[in-house]
């Protein structure tokens, strides 16, 4: 049988998680229950309205998550939990969905306590798993009159082993907004498409999972600031069927940008107690609502909390992916010293076929100053290592950059310096937004190989032994509940080629 770890220890000196090995402990939200009986606190209505999720998959473990909220948009009733302060939650995991009904076939099982102070969220780090395979899981709580209330069945996937040369395929999602400026709603047709796929290994949420500003279609319809406000906003977005289904079917890796907190916040130089308190509440809500391995961010108060979010995702021989946190440390530097050192060390030492740097804001030199281009020091250090590593090992070092934020899908390149004369050091794929709009219009030129103006959806990335592919899955009907998103012709990179050689098969290699 497998095991689960629920532990509030820190992550130690290295703040990123190497998502390929064993032995990391989860920093959990729930109390382990081995060796003691749980008092029964029955829940009167279905508490699993927000579904289930899994995330931060390693080769031998994965975090499974749920949050009890019979009324996820009603903070006045404590989201339907009333006077309850803690609720026992049982969980189980098996290799097939049918095995969940047979206790002898469970790979791991246990119980946890969902507590009010943590939004009745449950995070369980299930260990002792096999690499590179699907697992199925579910939760249950006691209902009234001896009934049992069960969650939807979730499906997850462990990371490929270090020597597994299978193709890795994943989706990138950014900038999803439900509230139009005219009072109407946007529709997640990209998630409609993604939720039905069988060939995706995992999903990366790379910033602006929701928006904090006030609009008529938002709940509440004003800019949010309290902990209950943030909990409600997460509830509103997670009630979208297709988004909830994506979480149910795929493990996710979550990296926030600014709007999960407040617009353009700079975590390294928050000013005043009010900003610090608001940041802490938003960070608490992020942790409560996502399947994160990292521990509880800390007590709410006047001292700034922290959640270790930058991390490495090693997925077999073909993919090594690093998620950068461009918000929590932003002040005089973009990433902070520790994250910068980790990132540079990773770039110098990774041996996967494809080295993918995922960052919420573009490194592309013309991508504005709201990110890397406003911090030329760290940008120059990163691009220098990219150039040096490619020159030293041109056949085996294949870098790509994945980003978002600017609300347009763009295929471009990272130049060594911020000018047209600098050499290319990586190809950058800027994600199309799920729904967020922009008035900018980008045209192909020497910098831009392709642009998806007015198209919304997600980005599919494929890492193969001989090539890298990106397909934009997009549509233009975010105002239409019956709209669709469709896959566009993919962009290709061939392993061993020089930066700047991205092409579509229908065109000559650039």
From TrEMBL:
Locate the region Disordered: 479-510
Q: Which Pfam families match?
A: PhoD, PhoD_N
Start and end residues of each PhoD-like phosphatase metallophosphatase domain: 170-444
- InterPro entries according to UniProt: Metallo-depent_PP-like, PhoD-like_MPP, PhoD-like_sf, PhoD_N, Phospholipid_Metab_Enz, TAT_signal
Domain Phospholipase D N-terminal as annotated: residue spans: 50-158
Q: What is this protein identified as?
A: Alkaline phosphatase D
Q: Which organism is it from?
A: Micromonospora inyonensis
């Amino acid at each position: 049988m497998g095991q689960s770890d629920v532990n509030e220890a820190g992550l130690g000196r290295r703040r990123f998680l190497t998502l390929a090995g064993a032995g990391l402990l989860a920093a959990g939200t729930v109390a382990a229950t081995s060796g003691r009986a749980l008092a029964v606190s029955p829940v009167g209505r279905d508490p699993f309205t927000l579904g289930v999720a899994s995330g931060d998959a390693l080769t031998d473990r994965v975090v499974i998550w749920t949050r009890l909220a019979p009324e996820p948009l009603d903070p006045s009733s404590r989201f339907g939990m009333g006077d309850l302060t803690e609720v026992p939650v049982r969980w189980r995991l098996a290799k097939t969905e049918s095995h969940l009904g047979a206790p002898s076939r469970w790979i791991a099982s246990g119980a946890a306590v969902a507590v009010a102070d943590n939004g009745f969220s449950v995070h369980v780090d299930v260990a002792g798993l096999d690499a590179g395979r699907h697992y199925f899981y579910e939760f249950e709580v006691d209902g009234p009159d001896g009934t049992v209330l069960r969650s939807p069945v979730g499906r997850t996937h462990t990371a490929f082993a270090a020597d597994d040369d299978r193709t890795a395929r994943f989706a990138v999602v950014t900038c999803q907004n439900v509230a139009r400026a005219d009072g109407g709603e946007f529709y997640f047709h990209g998630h409609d498409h993604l939720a039905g796929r069988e060939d995706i290994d995992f999903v990366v949420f790379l910033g602006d999972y929701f928006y904090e500003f006030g609009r008529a279609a938002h709940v509440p319809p004003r800019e949010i600031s309290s902990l209950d406000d943030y909990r409600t906003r997460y509830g509103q977005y997670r009630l979208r069927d297709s988004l909830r289904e994506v979480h149910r079917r795929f493990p996710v890796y979550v990296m926030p940008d600014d709007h999960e907190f407040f617009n353009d916040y700079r975590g390294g130089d928050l000013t005043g107690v009010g900003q610090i308190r608001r940041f802490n509440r938003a960070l608490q809500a992020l942790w409560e609502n996502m399947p994160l391995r990292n521990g509880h961010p800390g007590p709410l108060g006047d001292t700034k909390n922290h959640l270790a979010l930058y991390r490495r995702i090693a997925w077999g021989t073909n993919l090594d992916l690093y998620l950068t946190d461009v918000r929590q440390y932003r002040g005089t530097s973009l990433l902070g010293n520790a994250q910068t050192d980790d990132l540079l060390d990773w770039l110098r030492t990774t041996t996967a076929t494809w080295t993918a740097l995922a960052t919420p804001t573009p490194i592309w030199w013309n991508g504005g100053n709201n990110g890397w281009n406003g911090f030329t020091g760290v940008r120059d250090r990163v691009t220098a290592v990219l150039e040096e590593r490619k020159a030293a090992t041109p056949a085996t070092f294949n870098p790509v950059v994945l980003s978002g934020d600017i609300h347009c899908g763009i295929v471009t390149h990272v130049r060594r310096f911020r000018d047209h004369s600098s050499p290319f050091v990586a190809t950058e794929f800027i994600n199309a937004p799920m729904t967020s709009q922009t008035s900018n219009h980008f045209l192909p030129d020497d910098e831009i190989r392709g642009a998806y103006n007015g198209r919304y959806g997600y980005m599919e990335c494929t890492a193969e032994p001989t090539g890298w592919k990106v397909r934009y899955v997009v549509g233009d009907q975010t105002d239409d509940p019956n709209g669709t998103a469709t896959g566009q012709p993919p962009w290709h990179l061939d392993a061993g080629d020089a930066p700047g050689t991205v092409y579509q098969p229908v065109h000559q290699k650039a």
